Amino acid sequence: MAKRLFLLHVGPDHVDVSAMTEALALGGVRVPVADAEAYEHAGVEILRSHKAAGLRRKEVEGAWASLCRRARKARSDCFVSVPALFGATPEQAALALDELAGFRVVLVVTSGFACEPPAAWTSLVEEGRTHVLPARLTDEQLAAQVARIALIEEEARLDKRLAKVSKRRRQADRRLAA
Predict the structure, then answer these.
(1) Domain of life, per the record (predicted)?
(2) If you write DSSP's letter for every residue of 116-140 in order, what string do you get?
(3) Which residues fall within 8 angstroms of residue 83, CB to CB, at 6 or more apart?
(4) Sheet strands side by side (includes 103-109)
(5) Is 60 exceeded by the pLDDT of residue 1?
(6) 20 to 30 Å CA-CA from 66: which of 6, 42, 93, 117?
């Protein structure tokens, strides 16, 4: 079974994920059902910044794991936006990615082209799976870009699968001819 995509947005700007669901559906991408507070708590938990946010550790514990479980239950490609993770350290990024075992993680960064994407993330995400988009995109524009990225990833997966099937077919034809 092919791994599902987990499109993780870590851009510095906040986006309204609830307004993006229709446009994301065009690319076969879902948003895990959770309120905005759950997304914020997930970022606070990974960054260990609960004291700065005025929260107790107990209030944010398990928020990221819960979000990842909801993505698994969606049984399709998922888009999650946690802009606070833009400033994560390599250890924090690794902690977040540990929970995403079984997904193909695609990093979407909306920092624009003025600054580099966060090295903590780009060093951990597979080569070619980091997409830097212009800053200040509207929610609809970002959703369209994310859907486009998901379709590109699906096309690459299907091309790879087609190459394997073609190779097997040639091998079977050679055996039959012999």
Answers:
(1) Bacteria
(2) PPPHHHHTTSPTT-EEE--SS--HH
(3) 9, 10, 11, 12, 13, 14, 15, 43
(4) 29-30, 77-81, 4-9, 103-109, 130-132
(5) no
(6) 117
The pTM of this model reads 0.85
> In order of start, what are the domains of the chain with their CATH numbers?
4-177 (3.40.50)
3-state secondary structure of 109: strand
pLDDT classification of 124: cutoffs 50, 70, 90: very high
Q: How many CB atoms lie within 10 A of CB 46?
A: 21
Determine the length of the chain.
178
Annotate 135-169 with DSSP letters as a single string. Answer: SS--HHHHHHHHHHHHHHHHHHHHHHHHHHHHHHH
d(CA 121, CA 104): 14
Q: What are phi and psi of 7, to 5 degrees?
A: -85, 110
Residue whose pair of structure tokens reads 């229709």 in the numeric block: 22
- Cβ(135)–Cβ(114) below 8 Å: yes
- Quote the CA–CA distance of 18 and 21 in Å, as a whole number: 6
